[in-house]
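User: I'm writing a tutorial on reading structure tokens. Could you give me a worked example: one chain, its sequence, then its tokens, then a sentence or two explaining what the tokens reveal?
Assistant: Sure. Here is the example chain.
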Amino acid sequence: MLKEKGIKRGEIVGLILPGHPGWLFYLALARLGIPTMMQNNLESFTPELVPDWLISLEPHPGKELDRTIIVNEDYLTKVEASKELEEFEGFTDPEDLATFYSTSGTNGETKFREISAEYAWTASLRIHTNNVFGEDD
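And here are its predicted structure tokens:
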């Protein structure tokens, strides 16, 4: 259903969702090779990173409704009834942009850092307390 809405490779999708649904959409988009950025609230997007699309529980004042997917009971019913994709392009180059993470840095202003597909993959395989699978390095 994400591709049917018109989301394409090279576009950035903003996710403003609670943890579990946010990660499910993150993983679905990663399987399609589409980069994401997560935001915890409906505050304005930072000027240097405004997503092309938004997936959220409610509309965002900074994003057009025709480029927004509202996750509600109606949308989830449509997802359940949709046909599963048979092929997932994923990220085709290790340097493909996979996601962004936000940091306040030293001055308190929100900034976003890029994460490549390769870094996301290798970081997910590392065992340390940050991912609750093991001890510190």
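What the tokens reveal: The mean pLDDT is 83. The first helix runs from residue 2 to 5.
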